[in-house]
Design brief:
The N terminus is likely disordered. By secondary structure, this protein is an alpha/beta fold. β2, α5 and β3 form a beta-alpha-beta unit. The chain has a 7-stranded mixed sheet, with helices on both faces. The longest helix has 22 residues. It is globular, with a radius of gyration of 17 Å. The protein has a single domain, classed as 3-Layer(aba) Sandwich (Rossmann fold). α7 runs antiparallel to α8. The protein has 9 helices and 7 strands, in the order αααβαβαββαβαααββ. Pathway: Quinol/quinone metabolism; menaquinone biosynthesis; menaquinol from 1,4-dihydroxy-2-naphthoate: step 2/2. Its EC number is 2.1.1.163. InterPro entries: SAM-dependent_MTases_sf, UbiE/COQ5_MeTrFase, UbiE/COQ5_MeTrFase_CS.
Length: about 240
């Protein structure tokens, strides 16, 4: 594959292909997402930050952090935040934008084999990244391993609207409109075809909650955002 050739992942979610795909969209990733989500990504980020409830003195792992947009909102509280992602391109772009923040550290990391010690973090969070991991159940166990007893998990992920009427409207937007806009904005529009496929293939809210429980988390709960386009999952690592 040449440097300029588009890299497109598929539902096998080969880590090298997924990482390479995100490398290619890193520079315009945030602005493309803002347009394609019709600005909802800002609301989802605010809701996630409120669920994480970062405080000074805490250590927070923001996994699949991308360029660090969510990590910055946590770090502004005074918490020490590690923004981790398995895309080197995302890490480079994040450092370029936010490398000046003293309590924000960027690290390359694989969600299924995290390079962190047991019980290292007060809170672990992952936004729109669990769906791209080739073994998400293992990733949920790894997240629990690095979380202190009594610590919390917050996962914000695409889901399935419970309303059939709204689900149909959302599917029309995703299938017909989103690809056209993505081709206008993104350096790798094929990545957004994969986005649609991965969302369609992803389990619904209850199924993901079951995966979280099976990984050993307790007090598992979720709430829908934007009528169920996205679900915000929360859980606790038992003491």
């Amino acid at each position: 594959m040449t440097e300029n050739e588009a890299n497109r992942a598929d539902l096998h979610k080969d880590p090298a292909k997924v990482s390479g795909m995100f490398d290619q969209v890193a520079r315009r990733y945030d602005i493309t997402n803002d347009v394609l989500s019709l600005g909802n990504d800002r609301f989802w980020r605010v809701a996630t930050t409120r669920a994480v409830a970062p405080r000074s003195g805490q250590r927070i792992l923001d996994l699949a952090a991308g360029t660090g947009a969510s990590s910055v909102s946590f770090a502004r509280s005074g918490a020490y935040v590690i923004a981790a992602d398995f895309s080197p391109g995302m890490i480079v772009e994040g450092k370029r934008r936010y490398g000046h923040m003293p309590n924000l550290e960027f690290r390359e990391a694989d969600a299924t084999d995290l390079p962190f010690a047991d019980d290292e973090f007060d809170t672990v969070t992952m936004s729109f990244g669990l769906r791209n991991v080739n073994d998400p159940k293992r990733a949920l166990r790894e997240l629990r391993r690095v979380t202190k007893p009594g610590g919390r998990l917050v996962v914000c992920e695409f889901s399935h609207p419970p309303s059939r009427a709204f689900a149909g409207l959302y599917r029309f937007y995703s299938d017909r409109i989103l690809p056209v806009v993505a081709r206008m904005l993104s350096s790798n529009a094929d990545a957004y075809d994969y986005l649609n496929e991965s969302i369609r293939d992803w389990p619904d809210q209850r199924a993901l909650a079951g995966w979280i429980r099976d990984a050993g988390w307790t007090d598992v709960a979720h709430r829908n955002l934007s009528m169920g386009i996205v679900a915000l999952h929360r859980a606790v690592n038992p003491e």
